Amino acid sequence: MAANHVSFRYFVLGLLARQSMSGYDVKRLLKSLSWLIGSPSFGSLYPTLHDLLKDGLTTMEVVPRESKPPRKIYSITQAGRQVLQDWVDQPATPNAPLKAFVMRLILASNFSNAGLIAHLEQRRLQVADHQAALERVASEIDETDLRQYLAIDYALAIANAEMAWLDSTLDQLLVQ
Questions:
Q1: Range of the domain at 168
Q2: Cα-only R_g, the chain
Q3: Which pLDDT tens digit goes with each residue over 1-23?
Q4: Exposure of 74 in the CB half-sphere (CA atoms within 13 A)
């Protein structure tokens, strides 16, 4: 099973842990988050919901509606909560893409404080490595090549901003 599919499966499970939803509700929420996590294939949503149901990690209740098709409301089961907690307790894979980091961050309410701190510290190490690599590249580029300079400068600005956010957030969490 591909890593992105696995992350999406747990992400959907985590959303259902927050509240029961129909497939349409999940799709609408994913669309609202697409600027942050990209646009997951909506073609993968319903098979994912079906697999979660088949695996006993969710239940589905059919709610009749007047003059409309019935709504299928998915809810997480106790087994689903345990599977989700087991996933949350695992460290993210090293060099996980930003999308996977953000998806786990959106589900942060499922983390213990120590788990959230570990997740953020792992991302901080990853960003620091990326930042150092960008700084090496920046020191070697010809500043007269404006396009290359702008691209590296932009990437460094993003890395610096993320590092500042991670440091500030970790400081806040470590005080609690």
A1: 112-176
A2: 20
A3: 444 555 889 999 999 999 999 99
A4: 28
Burial of 175 (0-12, 13-18, 19+ CB in 10 A): exposed
Strand-by-strand arrangement of the 58-65 sheet? 21-22, 68-76, 58-65
Interval 75-92: pLDDT, tens: 999 999 999 988 888 877
Q: How far apart are CA 81 and CA 78, in angstroms?
A: 5
Residues 105 and 14: their CA atoms lie apart, in Å, by 11
**Structural domain count, the chain:** 2
Spell out the residues 6+ positions from residue 3 whose beta carbon is closer than 8 angstroms to its own. 93, 100
| pLDDT of 130 strictly over 70 | yes
Q: State whether 135 and 87 are in the same domain.
A: no
Residue 162 neighbours by CB distance under 10 Å: 18
Amino acid at 1: M
**How many Å apart are CA 2 and CA 6, to the nearest integer?**
6
Tell me how far apart the 2 most distant CA atoms of the chain are, in Å.
Answer: 67
DSSP 58: E
CATH number of the domain to which 38 belongs: 1.10.10.10
Helices (H), the chain: 3-18, 23-37, 42-54, 78-89, 98-106, 113-140, 146-175
